[in-house]
Design goal:
Blueprint lengths: L1 E12 L2 E12 L3 E5 L6 H9 L6 E6 L5 E4 L13 H5 L7 H10 L15 H13 L5 E5 L7 H18 L2 E6 L11 E6 L1 E6 L1 H6 L1 H7 L4 H11 L17
Parallel strand pairs: 3-7, 3-8, 5-6, 6-7
Antiparallel strand pairs: 1-2, 1-4, 8-9
Helix pairs in contact: 3-4
The structure holds adenosine-5'-triphosphate.
């Protein structure tokens, strides 16, 4: 059963169509990545899934009682406002100490609890946002460009963390990325959006799809290879086919 699905979803702002007949779904335990150029409607789709944007046509169906953990695209915290990580994690709802400790461990932010939010690095900040989203035991994590502003190793580390969380919780993950980089191969499914769904499938299928190439060109292949290489401890030569297929 799908955790969430959008059926024939259309949204227009002031007569400008932003989403046009979009169908997407997320099942339990899968990581689905939404890619698309700037302004293609990715955040609008996330907001529609969250229920904060009302569609003009179509509808969003959630599994009854679905618990969603949301990690926003950005969150500005006034640096003059004293706010420790521990306090931030207790907003808007205070959770039990054991629960907090578990999530803090899961997201690798132990030791940061008494630090000011405004003093955190970009990668630490994103992990804290993820930790807060995890405190509600989400069945679905919705993340809108969670690695914005991180360098490529930071981004790769964040996606590995997401994979671990998915494994540990069995939750579905729906995340937005506009730059692709390392994200694609961490996904079970990639959906390429440009107001409508241009193409979707496994990372490799989408990477090779003409609709995707038309939008993004060929520039991301290197990044995809880099990520795969990163996970592949047996081979250090990734310039060539390993030839395994020809064996026998
Ligand atoms: N509340 C709003 N009122 C009017 N126009 C809006 C509103 N929200 C978004 N838009 C417009 O809708 C279009 C899609 O915006 P959206 O934020 O969904 O795109 P995106 O794919 O997430 O973009 P980016 O990659 O730049 O974050 C843009 O042209 C944007 O200016």
């Amino acid at each position: 059963m799908n955790l969430i699905e959008a059926n024939d979803l259309s949204v227009a702002y002031g007569g400008n169509p932003v989403l046009d007949g979009v169908d997407v779904h997320v099942e339990a335990g899968e990581i689905v990545t939404l890619v698309g150029p700037n302004g293609s409607g990715k955040s609008t789709l996330v907001k529609a899934l969250l229920g904060v944007v009302r569609p003009d046509r179509g509808r969003v169906v959630r599994k009854p009682g679905l618990r969603i953990g949301y990690v926003p695209q950005r969150l500005h915290i006034d640096p003059s406002l004293p706010l420790t990580v521990a306090r931030f994690l207790s907003l808007p709802v205070r959770h039990g100490a054991r629960k907090v400790e578990k999530v803090v461990g899961q997201t690798g932010i132990a030791g940061l609890e008494q630090r000011q939010m405004s003093d955190l690095s970009g990668g630490q900040f994103q992990r804290v946002l993820l930790a807060r989203a995890l405190l509600t035991d989400p069945e679905l994590l919705l993340l809108d460009e969670p690695t914005q502003g991180l360098d490529q190793p930071g981004e790769a580390a964040f996606y590995r963390l997401l994979e671990e969380v998915r494994q540990a919780l069995g939750c579905g993950v729906f995340l937005v990325s506009h730059d692709l980089h390392v994200v694609m191969s961490a996904s079970d499914r990639v959906i390429c959006l440009n107001h409508h769904v241009c193409c979707e499938g496994t990372p490799n299928v989408v990477r090779d799809a003409p609709e995707y190439r038309a939008l993004f060109g060929h520039g991301t292949q290197g990044a995809l290879a880099l990520y795969q290489h990163d996970h592949d401890h047996h081979h250090h030569d990734h310039d060539h086919d390993h030839g395994d297929k020809d064996a026998g």
